[in-house]
Design goal:
- The chain is built from 15 helices and eight strands.
- Among the domains are: 118 residues, Rossmann fold; 171 residues, 3-Layer(aba) Sandwich (Rossmann fold).
- The longest helix is centred in the middle third of the chain and has 25 residues.
- The termini are far apart.
- By secondary structure, the protein is an alpha/beta fold.
- It binds iron/sulfur cluster.
- Iron/sulfur cluster binds next to helix 14.
Length: 427
Amino acid sequence: MTELSVTARPLAERVVYIPRMNYGCARMMAAAFRSLQIEAEVLPECTPDALRMASAYISGDECLPQRVTLAGMLWVVSQPGFDPCRTAFLMPTTHGPCRFGQYAPFFRKVFGKLGYGDIMILSPSTSDGYGAFGVYGSEFLRTAWRAVVVGDILLKLLLKTRPYERTRGATDAVYVDALDRVSRALARSGVTHRDRLRGLIQSLGEVRDAFRSIPIRASGSRPLIGGVGEIYCRLDEGSNDEIIRHVENYGGEVWLSGVVEWVEYTNEVVVLDLRASGQSFSLARGAFELRRLIQRKDEHALMEQFREDFRGYEEPADINEIFRRSLHYLPSYATLGEMVINTGRAVYLHEKGVDGIIDISPFTCMNAIVCEAIYLKLSRDHDNIPIKVLYFDGKARDWDQDVEMFMELVRDYRGRKHQKRDVAFPS
Ligand code: SF4
């Protein structure tokens, strides 16, 4: 729900700030807002100074993504000319087992105390059918879903190319250009969904060619590390101390879980809720399934031209593929949250023949703590694949020793593993 004072301005008269969780995805989401002629920007990268500023408002129990997001918001508030009546912060919410559902109420409380109760905290939730988007609802949701899908595609291209580039920085440069190009296609306003899709497919084709033209050496030859963990921490370089680049510096390649699987997971939770409330065959269920069908169609259309590029990196057909694999450890019908996804995904990654798995999570994240307890057995059940949980608390530290030791285990496992990759790559 979005709470506003009676004098509040509508969304169209505000700038919407998007949390940085995966910069690329946030850029795409900002473009989705612009397609409705709503101004939108990505929250700035979190700096130690901004984190210090945020620490004045926290008790110490908050999760890292909560602190990082608050820090970005406070930076916006501290800018000259800031107007609470013209500001909105996007902060999706959910019900579930962990602290994520507390983020939006917490931010409201902080800004209320600061006298900025007119700031809009735009808090879409699956449980109210994304009512927070108001009149923009279905129009926005379709474009936002496409934004998430293309954000994941671009991230995947970046991570599978960068470790093999001949010129340092070449892939990052192509990625930044790709973000500009695709967000322009996404942000076009006044066009039909069909035309926007056509434009997106065309710009993605150009991006694919640009990535393919980056000079590389021995693509796919490095040990492949599956990256799972808490969604914000694993995807935000500022929160995870650029850990992916550390792994690359030590000779690895990372296949990181994106945002799509989380959206699919929340969709499945809606189905479980409808079932629990006796609405399995209701109008609400019918409308939901229709939306899911359209989402899958769009996803398929956007992914189609990358079939060759993502050979060996195929995502599960749907979230039930993940649930099926987590069943033995954390059944989805009895457990909620990312711990279900991460355990199921770890099994999936093993089947795809990765050489090791890292879980990138915030310090004290309950999902990660549960997963860490399970990974030991999961590894034993799967050829003793190396799995390491890396915890982050917002302070920069030296990761070299951890990564170096983990990569030793990975190389050893690679030499003896039974589960080979289903695509032949040079070794
Ligand atoms: S998943 Fe972990 S970090 Fe994220 S809100 Fe839940 S407990 Fe906090």
